[in-house]
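S.,

Sequence below, as promised.
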Amino acid sequence: MVPRNSPAGIAKRRLALGLLFVFVCATRARAQVEIIDKIGLDRLQITSLGVAYGAIFPSQVEATRVYAVQADYGNLSPTWRVVFGGSYWSSRFRTNVIQSFADSLQKSLANPSDHILPSPVHVYDVTFSGDFRFTPNYSGELKPFFGVGLAAHVINAEGALINGTFIERALDDIAAGFYVTGGVSVHLLPQFGLEGAARADLLSGFRSTQIRGGATYYFGRIHPRGIPSDDGRSSSGSGGTSGSNAGKSTR
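The prediction came back faster than expected:
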């Protein structure tokens, strides 16, 4: 029998732990592959790119313009698809919000003769998002949709009133949020379409709504094996653009 604390015993325990770690990793990897197969993530491939411009109405912040891009990664099922996107906007806190903040600081001063001068505080938001969208499966080119998703907000705030304070550090944040979106897209040309949408974001201490419109470029209809097309027929190829449907998107 090998002593427990001998070099050979320690080596055996390390070997056993290593084998256990490999087994656990292999089991988890197999489970993840099975999940991917079940929900069809392995079939996703980019089918369109879009750009959009609109207006956003954040809570406590002046309404401003929003710029966005999105990529449609195709269908998980005939009626559900996956869309990833990003957006950017910049604005400043409303005057009444800044004035209320300055008044609260004024009340806390030890010397009432001192004065807090309100000044603009600018805020910037870069958002990365992904959502699942439901679109009715029919042959028309006018497609309403509804989606739910998650977004990561990279927020930065700056201004003389807060620079170098814990308020600035609290406002500078990377936060996750939930959003819903809905709208309609129309396929005008074989590889070109328009889209209008409304969206509402919710994250801790911050809300926003936006309305935007944009243009979409479609790469072409791609039918992975076993995924039915809009006319109800299943694709026989493993990938690529079908000749009879070239120039139309997976919608």
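Helices lie at 7-39, 95-107, 166-171.

Coffee later?
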